[in-house]
Amino acid sequence: MKSEAKKIDGVAPSAYGSGGLAGRENTLRAQKDISASDPGPRNLPLNRQNPSSNLPPVTDHGTVPPIWYSFDLVHRRMQEGGWTHQVTERELPSSKEIAAVQMRITAGGYRELHWHVADEWAYMLSGKARVTVLNPDGTMFIDDVEQGDLWLFPAAYPHSIQGLGDNGCEFLLVFNQGEFSEESTFLLSDWLSHTPPEVLAKNFRLPLESIAKLPTDSLYIFRGNLPDSLESDIAEATADARSKGPSYTFKLRAMTPTKKTAMGDARIVDSRNFPVSQKIAAALVTVKPGGLRELHWHPNASEWQYYIQGSGRMTVFNSSEQSRTMDFNANDVGFVPAVAGHYIENTGDTDLVFLEMFVAPQFVDFSLNNWIRHLPRTIAMDHLGLDSEEIDQIPPGKEIVL
Ligand code: MN
Ligand code: MN
User: What does the domain layout of the chain look like in residue ranges?
Assistant: First the structure.
């Protein structure tokens, strides 16, 4: 049957659209001749940023759900004191488990007192901030964070964030709920302006003249006064109610790498070393130029990525001959469906730094190299067509960065 099919350039028609070798050779020839020309309109800046979409590796095939978005595409809500924007399931529909918000707070500015239905995991991208969070037992936790630090506020715990220093701060907020919206948090000002004044007077034991001074519009992000030192704030606010429980902040960038090789390192933070983070696990990964975050997958969650610095490319293998490669730059978001295989390669000439985020109590991964190197040798040789000496050259795996 196959031999009777009409061949074009030596490739049987059945090969077109297949991920097999004949289909790849056909694609490769097309990319080199007139077939790849594009006489219609082009968004050239976007083409240049995404060479792996414009001329995909011939190994790419099939339809993979969206794996790329960028914070530089979304609406920025500006207010005196800072701004915010978000990439949620609405912008990146594949991401059902995680939504994220980026926020800038100028010196003295506040993200208003609030709480919400999702857990909040945050990474400081720039500057300094002071955070406060109330425990259900009535004790208060207060700390200062700076670039490279993170915090975790459990769902429904009320908290505040204030920009410090000369230039305030910018941070990334990660929520364990894809459809989370930063526009739908429980704001103190909102509650006050939607409660009868006489009830507020009774609750606060204040006269109505005092209640009339309370905010009547949402504050959300607003300018405020720089606070005193951390020590004096803690002494003043928590003299009778100091939190004795676990810390809600963590120094991620300053920690000793969990894994380190000549080509990069990874710092893993989850419930094992940061006990309050029971539902969100993360890895801060650095890949040096030419390095590779090895081929691997995660058994317990989808992966949501934030690119902090540098440029790279990722291919996601999603079974059934589905494989998609895209390019990532600073401020981009990446996504990997649960259990899908992937790698991340540094394609630039500076360090590539990114966060891998999971809605899971622990960071867990399988390394392809680790698997191959720990199989009985005959199984590995039969599957790969390699001899034993060649398999010996494969790194033993779980090095994270090669
Ligand atoms: Mn919050
Ligand atoms: Mn991964």
Answer: 13-61, 74-185+220-250, 259-393
CA of 287 to the centre of ligand 1 (A): 31
Q: Within 13 A of 334's CA, how many CA atoms are on the CB side?
A: 27
Q: Which of 215, 192, 216, 194 has its CA nearest to residue 204?
A: 192
Write down the pTM of the prediction: 0.92
Ligand 1 center–CA 199 separation, angstroms: 26
Residues 96 and 151 sit within 8 Å (Cβ to Cβ): no
pLDDT in tens, 33-50: 999 899 999 999 999 999
Tokens at 244, concatenated: 């004795």
What is the CATH code for 74-185+220-250?
A: 2.60.120.10
User: 258-276: per-residue pLDDT in tens?
Assistant: 999 999 999 999 999 999 9
3 state SS of 292: strand
The predicted model gives 344-370 an average pLDDT of: 97
| CA 13 vs CA 4, 32, 34: distances in Å | 11, 20, 20
What CATH number was assigned to the domain covering residues 259-393? 2.60.120.10
CA–centroid distance, residue 367 to ligand 1 (Å): 35
Question: Which residues, 6+ apart, have CB-to-CB distance to 4 below 8 Å?
Answer: none
CA–CA–CA angle 350, 354, 355 (5° rounding): 165
Task: At 207, list the tokens.
Answer: 């006269």
> Which bound ligand lies closest to the C-alpha atom of 117?
1
| Single-letter amino acid code for the residue at 187 | L
- Please, are residues 163 and 111 in contact by the beta-carbon 8 Å criterion? no
Indicate which residues carry an active-site annotation.
356
Q: How far apart are the first and last CA of the chain?
A: 46
